[in-house]
Each structure stands twice: as structure tokens, then as C-alpha cells.
Amino acid sequence: MASAKILVVEDDTPTLKLIVRFLQHKSYQLQMASNGLSALAVFDNFQPDLVILDINLPDVLGYEICEQMQLKRDVCILILTCRTQQEDIAEAFRKGADDYITKPFHLEELQWRIQALLKRRRNNSEQVLEQIIFPNLIIDPNRREIIVNDQLLNVTSLEFELIYFLASNSERVWSRAELIEKVWKYSFTGDHRVVDVHIGQIRKKLQAFLSPPLFIQTVRGIGYKFEYFKS
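and the corresponding C-alpha cells:
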């Protein structure tokens, strides 16, 4: 099996060298960039499986790079930044990030997060799963597509996995902590409201095809549940 390809986008040279040196010993294929413009060029040529992306780049904020990369193709994006405010974390996830680590950070934790993201991606690509079909909703896990009222819903990799998991396990309510464990595939020690951000993004996208956006219901004080209602 070929080793995973990782693009590291970081403008701080010592940090960039530290990450690259560490990951080289883990046998990943690596490319690097120190600004947004070069990151997009490398992204197109290298076709990475995962991107480690700083927000504070010299030419453009990493949020915009994250969004552009996700529009180009489905890729795992791990934000690595000194920004710790909740609004920064929320914005990163709104733009399509899969994970978020704040500086200073431990290299071992970075490796755990990378492994979790790549494992989830690998498992999804290897499994052949059944479609979930309703009269105005199709969730296709093999093509990784969601069709609402005959229109393709543009979602990120993590948004797809979240709605697919809820739809596949609609018999119960899932807490935020459970969704982190089941969808993110690791024990998350940060703010569980990250789930709310992704649910909010899914609902916002559904609004283009459904009014009001259906399917994912909030159960106050507990979490979320998938329920099908015909629009």
C-alpha cells in the first residue's frame, strides 16, 4: 500500500521544518508550502490525501485556502494554528476543515490526529455500502453524494460522514460526545460544540433545496437525531 501524501502549509520556517522532519520518519510522502498561492499550486499537482494548514499565512487567510481546496476535491484538512478563539474554530469548520489543533502542540498528538483522519478516509474508500433512499433524499456512501430533490448537495467529507452516520443510525438520539467518537473516530478533548457548527452548515446547505431544512432534528439537552419528513 502506498504511503499517504501530506501537504504541510506553514509560513513559520522552524515549525514547518519540525513537522516535515517528524513526518518523514513516519514514512509519509510530503510536500510543503509557505503561503496560500503556492499551497494551491502544490495541491493541484501533488493531489494530497491530507493537508496540514495554518490560518495565518502571509498572502491569504488559511480559511479561504481550506474552502478552495475542498471545492476542488474531497480532501482531509487539519488546521494547525495559534488561533484559539471559538469564532476562529467555528470559521475553520464552516470552510470545510476536518480537525483543528492549536499551537503550541505535541507532535505525537498531531500524528494521532493524522492517523485518525487517514483511517476514516481509508475505511470509507474500501467499504461498499448500501444507499439510503427516500422519495426526495438519496445518500450514496460509495459515490459520497447526497441528492436532495434531484439536486446534488455540496458537502465536505466530514459533513457527509456526519449525515450518513445519523441517517444510518436513526433509531436513537446521539449526543455530541458520541458523534465525536463515532464520526471523528477519536476521543475529542475540546469543545463538543464543534458538532453544532457542522450540523449548522449542513442545515444551511439544505435550505437551498428544502424549506425548512429537514432530516436532522435537535433533541434539547441531549444531541441530534435523524428523522425523515417528506417536504
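(Above: one complete record from the training split.) The chain has two domains: 5-126, 132-227.
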